[in-house]
Write a sequence for this structure.
């Protein structure tokens, strides 16, 4: 499946605003792949397809989860906003014949992350977080980190996401906690040093 074919399929299923978001994720994923030695073709394809089932009806997403053993059933106990990620991977595999497991995993974990994320998974996860159209507290700091360290930026994005969910009394999917714990082992001190060096300069963005 080439870029134009993938974009055409995505455009059919996404509202214009989400399609523009997708283009931003592609742009960011390509930049990250170039900076950190990722496979640009795989990054491009995974970024294009990452949200393809985002606007499927909840009942349709639920049916996919209930009928596909490769999707953990415990996901049904968490917010439906998470469901499109693993469902999207199943969808593109079944509908478009995409068999590249690296691409499928990058789609699957682009929302939650997981322990032992691959380079491609980190690229797509982070690209989704920092694409140019995003505007929320903390994103500019993560964008700056992304220019210096992929792992540092992903760890900070996971920290921000977890903090946001906890502060709003929302459930945190176990894979997200595991991904945070996995990356913070080697990046916790670096994040603390970053904050100490730069102070609160990004807090009011």
């Amino acid at each position: 499946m080439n870029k134009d074919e993938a974009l055409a399929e995505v455009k059919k299923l996404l509202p214009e605003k989400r399609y523009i978001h997708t283009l931003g994720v592609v742009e960011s994923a390509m930049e990250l792949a170039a900076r950190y030695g990722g496979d640009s073709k795989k990054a491009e394809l995974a970024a294009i397809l990452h949200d393809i089932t985002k606007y499927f009806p909840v009942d349709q997403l639920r049916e996919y989860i209930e009928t596909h053993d490769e999707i953990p059933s415990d996901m049904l106990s968490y917010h439906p906003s998470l469901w499109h990620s693993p469902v999207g991977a199943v969808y593109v595999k079944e509908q478009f014949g995409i068999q590249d497991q690296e691409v499928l995993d990058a789609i699957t974990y682009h929302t939650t992350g997981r322990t032992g994320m691959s380079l491609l998974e980190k690229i797509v996860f982070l690209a989704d977080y920092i694409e140019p159209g995003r505007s929320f507290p903390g994103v500019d700091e993560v964008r700056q980190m992304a220019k210096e360290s992929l792992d540092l930026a992903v760890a900070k994005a996971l920290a921000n996401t977890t903090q946001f969910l906890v502060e709003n009394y929302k459930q945190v999917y176990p894979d997200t906690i595991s991904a945070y714990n996995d990356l913070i082992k080697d990046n916790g001190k670096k994040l603390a040093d970053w904050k100490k060096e730069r102070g609160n300069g990004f807090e009011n963005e």
